[in-house]
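Morning - acetyl coenzyme *A inputs below, output right after.
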Amino acid sequence: MTKNSYISGVGSYLPDRVVTNAQLSKTVDTSDEWIRARTGIAQRHIAAEGQHTSDLGYRAALDALKNADMSAQDIDLIIVATSTPDLTFPSTATMIQELLGIHQGAAFDIQAVCSGFIYALSVADAMIKSGQGTNVLVIGAETFSRILDWNDRTTCVLFGDGAGAVVLSANKPDVKDAGAGILNTFIRSDGRYRDLLYVDGGPSSTQTVGKLRMAGNQVFRRAVKELSSSMVQCAGEMDVKIADINWFVPHQANQRILEAVAKKLDLRRSQVISTVAYHANTSAASIPLALDVAIKDGRIKRGHQIMLEAFGGGFTWGATLLVY
Ligand code: ACO
């Protein structure tokens, strides 16, 4: 039987501390009005001192396992998408593996910035289809607050911390309501644009962690173009019409990007899951966080067709078409 992969559970975790735009405007030269109008962001969660990316990812993983009705011992592969690992090495994935008490299988990180979750899902799907995984934890976890320049108002207001996770499982004939699972994945990158969105430090270049730098305007324009075309291509390869897809779960960078893409593809606003107001941009964590919100509040149901899409530093971008 040909193996397929489907989402058997979804979970998320947000740090307790919430920082509103008004609170931020006390230390940064900005205003609630500017941030809301330009980005749709109202607040962000910020990890506590000593709370690391692996801690956030671990809690999201526990929630996803509970939702999948599985124990950690059912997991044979962990893939973590992050650009803010606890340490340069070992991987955050092996740290989460240890926190979960898993001593079997494999664990590794993927780095594709805000597209990381789409990349990780694509790899997990391919590994399940080739028989190299049965129940795979795919986690997006970030502490972007640690790589922000809090004196740069053009970037520090945009990001937040958090984690989301899915358990991606090999389809079994006896699983009811499993849907068709992942139908298609599409990933792309183009390194010519590295200077438009990057972190100005790293072990091999500066021996420091560095801070996020971005030419927001240029990122915006490219994101709208590539997000739209990757969704059209991802759906088109499966002969699925964009108009027939129930839900769109985009990377949550900016409400204006979400709306520009929706306008380009003629999507209804109500079909596009948006959590950017509450979470801000949590990079690789933003898609599973938004997915979890929409599943838990009952909008996304088993059998619905969903498009996930992301764009990030690199540039990297991509989309995933699936039946939940
Ligand atoms: N508060 C108040 N004023 C501000 C702020 C702020 N936080 N930030 C910038 N401004 C000012 C600027 O200084 C500028 O003032 P000036 O006209 O006097 O020079 C003015 O606001 C307009 O600045 P722009 O940069 O032109 O504003 P823009 O409308 O482009 O919005 C934004 C900026 C929100 C960053 C937008 O470009 C954007 O969202 N881009 C996409 C960014 C993104 O999504 N990045 C994530 C990609 S994913 C990843 O991999 C991380």
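Note: The two ends are 21 Å apart (CA to CA).

O.
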